[in-house]
Every structure is written in C-alpha cells, then in structure tokens.
Amino acid sequence: MSDQLRDQLRDESRVELRDQFFTLSAGQAPADEVAHYRAQVNATETEFAATIDGLAISWHPTARHKSVRFVEAELIDADVRELFARPSEDAPYLAAVFVDPRELSFRTYENILPLDRLFTGVPLDLELTERAELAAGVHAFALRLPADARASLERLDTLNLYVPPLNAVSRGGERYIFHSALLADALTGAMAQALPEPLRDGFSHVNPVFRCNRFEPDDTNFHRHRDTPYYDAGRRHISRYTVLLYLTGGSAEPALDLTPVASLTEIDAFTCVVFDQRYEHEGAPYADGRKVFLRTELVFAAPKTEFTQDPEIGELFSKACYLTGESVFAPELARHADAYYNQVAAAHWNGLVPRTDSEPYVHKDFRGVRFVANGYDFWFAKSDKLSLTECATIALLDYFNCKIGDSAFRALCDTEVIEADNTDWIPAHLRDRPSDSAVAPIDKSLFFPDPEDPHDDDMCCPFHRSESFDATRHDEIIGLYEDAQTASKAHIMPAPVVMLGEDVLLDPDKFVIRGNSIHVLGKKSLTPVNFAACWNWGGFPDMYIDVESTVGVADFVVPPILFTESDDCYHLQFDFFRNSWMVEHEQMNIPVPKIYDGVRDDDDDDANFQDEMEYVLAERDRA
Q1: On the CB side of 493, how many CA atoms lie within 13 Å of its CA?
Q2: Is the peptide bond preceding residue 217 cis, with omega within 30 degrees of 0?
Q3: Which letter, b or e, does each residue of 335-348 get, where b requires 16 or more Cβ atoms within 10 Å of its Cβ?
Q4: Which residues contact 517 (CB under 8 A, 6 or more apart)?
Q5: What is the DSSP letter of 543?
Q6: Can the peptide bond before residue 454 be classed as cis, meaning omega within 30 degrees of 0?
C-alpha cells in the first residue's frame, strides 16, 4: 500500500465518512445530522483509489464520488482493497465503492451483483401451487419451499445492498439487481410444472437477473409503465411474461394494478404473479408494512419469422439510454428518458406510437467544438476547422462517455437542454456558434521508436556487465524491449482514438468513409508473441524496461455511422441498438516501453512502474 493510502486510512475523518454512510442509509437519522453529513461529503476532495470497468472508485464518499455500488472485493487492487467497507455480513465478498455518477454510461448504469453464493447448498425445491387465473395472461400462484430456501430469500432484504434507482423520479422505493443461476434454475423447474399449457409452448427459462425491490409505506408509487422485454438476438430468446415474487405480504389500494384487466389489494407473502408484458401496470407500497418483491421474466424461444425489425424502436432506446446519462447533469431529462423507455416497451407489442409533445435535445460545447445530440442523432456545423472524422470521434466519446485524463467526457462539456418540436432550428443554431478543432490526428508509430543497434559484446547477461555496459545496446534487453513494444502495439495500433493525458487524438486510418457511412475500424485479434528470455528473473529493476508514458486507448466495435451533409451541417446517426449488432466498447491505459539505462534505487516505491510492467508481462503470458 502506498504511503498516501496509508495516510488516508489513518485519517479518521475519512474512515468516519465511509462508516457513517451506511449508518445513515438506514434512514433513522435526524434531518440535521443528514444535512451535516452531506456538507462534509461536499467539502471532501480526494483522489480515487482504483478503477474497475473504467470507473474511478473511492472507498468513501467525496464531492465527486457520491454514487454507491457493490463489487466483488477481489476485483479491487490488492494494495487498496482493505480500505473498502464490506457492509453486508451475509455477502462479505462484496465491497462498497463510490463512483462519480458523471462517469456512468449505458454500459455501467446498472450494478448487477453476483449472489449465487447465497443459494449454494440451499435446498431449492420450489413448487408453485394454487394457480389462479386473474385475467387473460395474468396468473397468481403460491410458492411452496423448504424453510432454508425461504430463509435465504427473506435474507435478500437484509443484505444492505439497496441503492436508489437511476429512474427514482418515476419509481419510488429502493432496489438492487442481482444474478443467481441457482435461483433461476429452481424457478424454471417450478414454472415448467405449474404454467398453464399455452404458456409452456416455447418456454425456455427464467431470467437469472433479478431486481429486488423494497417499498416503505410512505414511499411513492412505482408509476404506471410497461416492462421492456428481454431480447437475445443470437439465441432467438425473448421475454413475454413478467414474474413478481412477493417476499412480504400486505395490502394497498391496490398493491398491484393491471387496470383494466386485474388488480390485487391483498397479497400474501410468497405469492408469485405472472403477467403478459403487454400490460401496463403500477404498484403502490403496502399500507401496513414493508413491501419486498423480486422481479424477473419468463424467457421463450421464438421462431425467426416472428420478429419484424423496426429501426425506430432501436432509435428510441438509444435516445432513452443517452438521456438517462445526461439526466445526471440536467435532471429535467429524466422524465423524457422514462417516456422513451415506456414508448419502446409498448412498441414491441403494439407498434410505435409517435410522441405528440416536444422532444429534448442537448447542445454541447467540448473545447470549442459545438454540437447538438439526442443520443441517436448528432449534428455539427461544417467548417474548415472540423473534419467529418473528428465529428465521428467526438460523437463516439460522447455516447460512450469515455474518460479523458481523470474526467468523463460529458463532465468536460458545457451543456444546454433545448426542447423543440422538430430539428429545423439546428443548422442555424450551430452556424451562429462556430466550432474550433479539438481532436488532432496522430501517427502512432511515433510511440515506438526503433531500438539502438546491438553492440558486439557477447556478455551472457547483465549481471556480468562491465563498467561500460550499455543497456540500450544489449541484444537480449533489446529483444525484451521489442517484445514489450509488441504487447503495447497490440492495443495501441488498432485503436481509432488515443488519449495522451488531457489530449484526444485520432488515427485517420481507422475511420473509413464509404458513401454515406463512416466505418470505425477496431482491434484485430492479438498476434502471438514469443517472449523467450532466460535471464530476467532478477526483478523489475534489472529488466531494464521502464515505462516511457501511458497512453489511453478507446477501442470501439460499432456499426457504420451513417451521415448526411448539407451546406451548413453534418448530421451523423448511430444505430447502436440494431438487433443484428452487438455493441462493445473498451477503454484502457497502455504502457509505452523504453529501455532504462540508469541505476534504480532498490528502496524506490515505484508502484506505477511495477504495475505497468506487470501488465506487460501478463500480456506476454496471455499471448
């Protein structure tokens, strides 16, 4: 552990910030105590301790890192792992981390927790009985299960894993999302036995991703909505029915409203309700106690001929995801994101119904480049200073909210929300706000200069060196240097975008314009590398390979970006959610090696050097 982090751990105020968060999360503290705590957090500015999935994580709340998430502790760097709290006694392998919500994108909105360990060794002999058909496509069951299985399910409410949902404006209560293949398999077997015959046709399995929801009597309703169907294009799997498993019983007016077809005012503990996802529904908190339920869905195998692809549905979903992230900066966008999600869910079953109200657009200024976006469309004013490839680069960075230096792209933008009935205003709006250039091209071969020519000395290894030994010209060290270069090149050379500190650079060769499409070329498969070296057992200082610099790379696997152009404007369209495409995005920091030709202090705690060299060696071993 570095001295800086040891100092943090000794800083009792930060430890108190960490521990008090979980005390106050119980909701019993006076309002003035909560206000005092928030003021302390807002006054705390510290560096993050590690990164996971591209997110900078802190072990306590700070002015920036206010969103709590739970991750497997073993994923956190060992040097700082002990700083992070383990708030769940029943799931001690989960650590609480705090992230900057401005860094989230659609890849990291949800925090899905692995909870299979809670059900390992538990007899999950589940049986659904007392089936009642409440309406067409709506069925209720009583869940019978062993006492140990019942206790395991009830324990889900006491794990201290609840977090406010991103769409808290429309849903109320708290929830967390978890994955359990064991629980899903047990429910799959029970459903296969209990479902009425028409529902068994094509039934595949229960989705192993569950949402655990909790409502207190004074919470707001989960507003009327439709559930978005699960869809796996590769397996031809789609969800058709929502499953609600109530872990507590109670009453409300009503507790579950499927108007106009059905409603439930009294619900017993371990009641299971299955209903067609075409139905809108709403849930109210129990009037007489805590309401806790799990939500998942029944997944079916569907014939290929059943689906009609409607690109407008993907367009809407892309907008909904984008506006969810933007609502961190502009809360008024949350209601628009929620409306888009509901519009998408309805369109899967009933066709797309156009909105009749105005739509939101976001005008952004990134280092002098001004553009308008809605998550599917991106508009840029044409100018001599702004190339089409630069427009594509900025749109990619924006959509995926990539990190530039220590900041997320969206946090670096000045943002203005504009609601309008159409897009006619955009060209003139941008023309009045001319753009500069913010992304320059780069020749990435400059990162990898050729080594010196080896000298004629035939020393077997550096340990037998003379005073005139020159590491930069030793043939075996040059070989290791070239191998380290190869490991770094495998990531840097294919990447369309690289970051050098706060600078963003693009590789023009990775953006191919054909017709009205921009093809973004990503990483190819890694070339096997033979890292044969018999002499480098002596530790990092004696390997003579140091880190010249660290280069951030952003690699994208995306469909072609469509564009049109007018006299004034480039209009780019990203169809990220076409069913025929799987979207991937990877961002990482890659060490650029150099040969170290000096004396290294054995006591030098060069953690960065060691971390980067461990990365190079890991790449070597993987290759």
Answers
A1: 13
A2: no
A3: ebbbbbbbbbbbbb
A4: 560, 561, 562, 563
A5: G
A6: no
Report whether pLDDT(407) > 50.
yes
| Neighbouring C-beta atoms of residue 265, cutoff 10 Å | 14
Name the residue among 485, 486, 445 with its Cα closest to residue 594. 485
Q: Report, as an integer, the average pLDDT of 544-556.
A: 70
Lowest-pLDDT range of 188-202, 225-239, 325-339, 426-440: 225-239
Contact by Cβ (8 Å): 179, 209: yes
From the list 107, 10, 117, the residue with the least C-alpha distance to 52 is 107
Pairing verdict, β 407-408 and 403-404 = antiparallel
E-strand ranges in 528-597 read 545-557, 561-565, 569-573, 584-595
CA distance 592 to 608: 13
- Three-state secondary structure call for residue 134: strand
pLDDT digits (tens, 9 = 90+) for 434-451: 888 999 999 988 888 888
The helix (H) or strand (E) run that includes residue 319 is helix 311-326
Contact between 360 and 373 under an 8 Å Cβ cutoff? The reply is no
Three-state SS string across 388-427, please? Answer: HHHHHHHHHHHHCCCEECCEEHHHHCEEEEEEECCCCCHH
Beta strands 440-441 and 503-506 are parallel
Q: Say if residue 392 is exposed, middle or buried (CB neighbours under 10 Å; 0-12, 13-18, 19+).
A: buried
As a whole number of angstroms, the distance between CA 309 and CA 273 comes to: 30
Residue type, 269: A
CA 468 to chain centre: 53
The Cα-based distances of 524 to 190, 444, 528, 556 in angstroms read 45, 16, 12, 11
Average pLDDT value for residue range 90-101: 94
The DSSP bridge partners found for residue 477 are none
Report which of 80, 79, 43 is spatially closest to residue 61, judged by C-alpha positions.
Answer: 43
Q: Is 602 exposed, middle or buried (0-12, 13-18, 19+ CB in 10 A)?
A: exposed
Q: Which residues pair with 570 in a beta bridge?
A: 380, 565
For 445, counting Cβ atoms within 10 Å of its Cβ (0-12 exposed, 13-18 middle, 19+ buried), the class is exposed
Q: What percent of the chain has pLDDT over 70?
A: 83
**Largest Cα–Cα separation, the chain:** 90
Could you tell me how many residues make up the chain? 623
Summarised one tens digit per residue, pLDDT across range 289-323 is 999 999 999 999 977 666 666 778 888 888 988 99
Question: Which residues lie closer than 8 Å to 471 by C-beta, 6 or more apart?
Answer: 462, 477, 544, 595, 596, 597
Q: Supply the DSSP string of 87-116, one letter for each residue.
A: --TT-TTEEEEEE-GGG--TTTS--EEE-G
Which residue has tokens 């309002």? 31
